[in-house]
Amino acid sequence: MTFAEQLINWRRELHQNPELSGQEVATTTRIRHWLESAGLRLLPYPLATGVVAEVGQGEKVIALRADIDALPIQETSGVAFSSHNDGVMHACGHDVHSSVILGAALLLKEREAHLSGRVRLLFQPAEENFTGAKALIKAGALENVSAIFGMHNEPGLPVGTFATRGGAFYANVDRFVLRVRGKGAHAARPHEGKDAIVIASQLVLALQTIASRNVDTLDSVIVSVTRIQGGNTWNVLPESVELEGTVRTHRNEIQQQVEKRISEIAAGLASAFGAHIEVEWFNGPITLINDDKWAAFAMQLAQRVGYRTQTSELHMGGEDFAVYLQTIPGAFVSIGSASEYGLHHSAFNPDEALIEDAARYFATLAEQALLEK
Ligand code: NI
Predict the structure, then answer these.
(1) 42 Cβ partners below 8 Å, 6+ apart?
(2) How far is the CA of 341 from the centre of ligand 1 (A)?
(3) Which of 5, 150, 193, 304 has most Cβ atoms within 10 angstroms of its Cβ?
């Protein structure tokens, strides 16, 4: 069996046996077994799921991170190795990321005697619910680590393509809930109520002015209402309407500006219509900020080993890797996976041809990063 076949087999075994965030028990057992069989040292962190291993000797430590969790999606890709777990699917390609970092681990084990330090391999659980990175850091996985690298496959890019960028990359992902409380009334006597549906409608449109009229057009921002709930029949004006939505930004100043404007608009409309509007804000994943130096380093190496490289666009989605980069420098990169269907789609089907090259790339990246100051 070739190296590529080995990695593809592992990827398919993970793909057939996907597990949700925080429940990656069998996945953890598999990865532990494969790493141990290849002679890697497992570090005894007290983790419910997830694996941390190490290779090499010495003071300096570089970390490589893969995520291992799947999504609550019923697979429709039709591949022969489709999910055996009903309603659960590796629809984000974390099985691919895991096999890439497993491959890098094997290659680094072969070069162990020549490494100028240690490479720590993080197989992180619970990326999709943004709790895994925090858990690994709490367990001590970043101790003595001077830089960390990770990847996401990019279905929109051809295999052999590599993209990253210095600075902000993935977005702050925040959520809000607005509760409009007016006064219910008979549909025949609207003047006796304060129609929560009319107020909520004004609110939806007013929120659109935050992106179009408050934030600099050159800054990235999304403000979307994604759920409206109110009323339960045709002849009653409901007392209350609940709205929920999301805000995506890359700069914390903009994030704070948007949060403040939502509150101001809600208060203003509540006052104008004599209603009450309650605003709840939930901070989600933080913006992912690549270190300029390490992003350039990763890009140059990618070019040197034969990838077509490009500066990545900003992503409006979130990525838990951001939490590591809040603590230590490093870079997150995109590698083309050429899937007709995108991430989190039930027919997502990344091209496995990316795996071997990416494994070789990450092994060399860690090896080279150990030589940097
Ligand atoms: Ni993902």
Answers:
(1) 32, 35, 36, 51, 52, 53
(2) 14
(3) 150
Q: Which domain holds residue 63?
A: 3-170+285-369
**pTM for the complete prediction?**
0.92
Count of the separate structural domains present in the chain: 2
CATH of the domain at 340: 3.40.630.10
pLDDT tens profile 108-160: 999 999 999 999 999 999 999 999 999 999 999 999 999 999 999 999 999 99
Domain end, chosen from 252, 283, 314, is at 283
In the reported structure, the alpha carbon of residue 227 is separated from the centroid of ligand 1 by a whole-number distance in angstroms of: 24
Q: Is 277 found in the same domain as 345?
A: no
For residue 237, the CA-to-ligand 1 centroid distance in Å is 42
Task: Please provide the size of the chain in residues.
Answer: 373
Centre of ligand 1 to C-alpha 343, Å, is 7
CA dihedral 31, 353, 306, 329 (to 10 degrees): -30
Tell how far the Cα of 248 is from the centroid of ligand 1, in angstroms: 17
Q: Same domain for 152 and 217?
A: no
Structural domain ending residue among the three candidates 259, 283, 307? 283
**What separation in Å is there between the alpha carbon of 97 and the centre of ligand 1?**
9
Dist. CA 206 → ligand 1 center (Å): 33
Residues 131 and 197 in one domain: no
CATH code, domain with 276: 3.30.70.360
CA 43 – ligand 1 centroid, Å? 25
pLDDT tens-digit series, residues 45-64: 999 999 999 999 999 999 99
Cα–ligand 1 centroid distance for 131 (angstroms): 13
> Are 152 and 16 members of one domain?
yes
Number of H helices, E strands in the chain: 9, 16
CA distance 328 to 285: 17
Where on the phi/psi map is residue 325: left (φ > 0), alpha (ψ -120 to 50), or beta?
Answer: alpha
* Same domain, residue pair 210 and 351: no
Low-confidence ranges of the chain (pLDDT < 70): none
